[in-house]
Specification:
7-stranded mixed beta sheet; about 120 residues; globular; 4-stranded antiparallel beta sheet; 11 strands
Length: about 120
């Protein structure tokens, strides 16, 4: 089955940048779309960005401008670049695949990673 593993989280200073990665593994080639969500303590899960199996990228309005999503077709890895990090970006970031629904930010996903912690602090 499909397995998603996030990496790249850690401590970053305010104003700094950080790149997260989501690696996909498994015997099948389905579910090649990918989305990034985050959840901070006391808050509900928030959609960040999405990239389709064909490379079409989309961003949530609240995240547009400070996040960049990209893919590595050969390694089947998707990246999320956080620019100009703010303390509000502190959260657990999750990778998901296999969306089904009309809107990617509200869709259900077949697979989820375990999450990677991002902490923005001096």
């Amino acid at each position: 089955q499909v397995q998603l593993v996030e990496s790249g989280g850690g401590l970053v200073q305010p104003g700094g940048s950080l790149t997260l990665s989501c690696a996909r593994s498994g015997p099948f080639t389905s579910y090649n779309d990918r989305a990034w969500f985050r959840q901070a303590p006391g808050k509900e899960r928030e959609a960040i960005s999405y990239i389709s199996s064909t490379g079409l990228a989309a961003y949530a309005a609240s995240a547009r401008g400070r996040f960049t999503i990209s893919s590595d077709g050969i390694k089947d890895t998707v990246h999320l670049r956080i620019h100009s990090a703010k303390s509000e970006d502190t959260a657990v970031y999750y990778c998901a695949a296999g969306a089904y629904g009309s809107s990617w930010w509200e869709a259900k996903y077949a697979y989820w990673g375990q999450g990677t912690q991002v902490t923005v602090s001096s």
